[in-house]
Design a protein that fits this description.
single chain, 285 residues, alpha/beta, 2-enoyl-CoA Hydratase, Chain A, domain 1, Lyase 2-enoyl-coa Hydratase, Chain  A, domain 2, six-stranded mixed sheet, globular
């Protein structure tokens, strides 16, 4: 598929997804949202791809929303994401992060430079966030007269805590990679020239010894348990998943490979071997 605002490449069993408007510091547009979602669909459907790394081309990760429309940039009449029967439009950043939320493979963000607005908030839906020494983060929405987007009012407090989330969003201050690490917004800092190779190593560490179907189920189990008031529903889902996976060829291979002291060769595929109870949340929304 040809893309205009992003690029998508395969590196062994990894997808490398790059925001690709370097002349605009990869500023976010509706087309970029649509292309990112299309790329995620392609990656999820391809069993040869086990994880995705998302980064930016040029010196920035994403400068936030493209402000070329001037003062009308955030006017709701300028997009078409209203849903029939609702008196409001759906935030485009949230449409993207909700797709990431439902994704079945690990998402690693490798932030290569400045990331403000949606450039910062889209990363919250990733599983692992790492950053270059050159990275900067800013949740600048209140400074622009709007409010946080991309479901960040749900994601951000869970990552950095409610007080720090309010500090970052009220002030809109720009923080460097060291402060981002200190508050657990990212998990590590890297030399700019090493960022992508380090991201690939991190991705391989996540996936090389584990069954893809098990990773897919586990990702959804952990993300969706975030909002539960108690552990009872988690116990139900875990029990169903253990029963299903325990009877699978992957479980037999996992045990045999351990006993035989050799690397496992898992054969079950996300495209064809997800359990019958999945997705268990389908009737929730």
């Amino acid at each position: 598929m040809d893309f205009k605002t992003i690029s998508l490449e395969q590196d062994k069993n990894l997808a490398i997804l790059l925001l690709n408007r370097p002349e605009k510091l990869n500023a976010f547009t509706f087309l970029m949202m649509e292309e990112l979602i299309s790329a995620l669909d392609l990656i999820e459907d391809d069993d040869s791809l086990h994880a995705v790394i998302i980064s930016g081309t040029g010196r920035g990760f994403c400068a936030g929303a493209d402000l070329s429309s001037g003062k009308e940039t955030f006017n709701p009449s300028f997009d078409n994401f209203a849903v029939q029967g609702q008196d409001f439009r759906r935030d485009s950043g949230g449409i993207l992060t909700l797709r990431m939320y439902k994704f079945l493979k690990p998402i690693i963000f490798a932030c290569n430079g400045p990331a403000v607005g949606i450039g910062a908030s889209m990363q919250l839906a990733g599983d692992i966030r790492i950053a270059s020494e050159n990275a900067r983060f800013g949740f600048v929405f209140n400074n622009r007269g709007i409010v946080p987007d991309a479901c960040s009012s749900w994601f951000l407090p869970k990552i950095v805590g409610i007080s720090k989330a309010l500090d970052l969003t009220f002030s809109g201050k720009i923080i460097d990679s060291q402060e981002a690490l200190d508050i657990s917004l990212i998990s590590s800092i890297h030399k700019p020239e090493n960022l992508m190779n380090d991201a690939k190593k991190i991705a391989q560490d996540l996936i090389e010894k584990s069954a893809p179907v098990s990773i897919a189920i586990t990702r959804q189990m952990l993300w969706r348990s975030f909002g539960q008031a108690d552990p009872y529903e988690a116990h139900v889902i875990e029990s169903k998943a253990i029963d299903s996976r325990g009877a699978s060829d992957d479980a037999k291979e996992g045990v045999n490979s351990f006993l035989e002291k050799r690397p496992a060769k898992f054969k079950n595929l996300i495209s064809s071997d997800m359990p019958d109870f999945f997705p268990w949340w389908e009737d929730e929304h």
